[in-house]
Amino acid sequence: MKVLYAKAALYSYAHLEAIAEQIDEIVEKKAFSSSMNFSPALNQFEEIIGLTYQKEIVYALKLCLDAALKKFSDREKDFLDYKYFHLKPKDYYKDFDVSSRGYFRTQVRLAEKFAECLQKAGYSDERFEEECLSVEFFREMLARVKEKENLNRKNKTVQEKEQIKKIKSLIAKNSDKAHGDKLAGASVSA
Fold it and tell me: Per the confidence metrics, is the pTM higher than 0.85?
């Protein structure tokens, strides 16, 4: 499974129950208002069935995510919670060093591991695209994740260019200093 899809699933995790409840509310409203809706009953029925199918997709994904999360240690779950779920209070993470390279490497590794867990559980790219992306919430979440990834890539490129400029500047300064030292040494020996 693509890591991008796994990240979209992770960001969605904390909201899956609420999404299912919202679908229930929509179905209930459609059922109650059906007497005022003059479209063919078959169309109304198909719409309600479609919503029910979306709810099944949400619950199936939730069950799969719950099973996948059981394969992670408590510490790994803390990392996932910090980045994706936000279920624990902020002060729980006061000692979390989120600016270190180790943090970012851990997040990359965990996202890859999570994608592998979903793949093993039967959530291939095709299944995710066919089922989950039929639900508007998942399409929007995937678009946000893609946007965030692109922004991160651009920021990384800008940072890399700035680092290269700094390195070139240091090399130039050291080169000028070394050249100056040679000239000073040459004038002393002359």
Answer: no
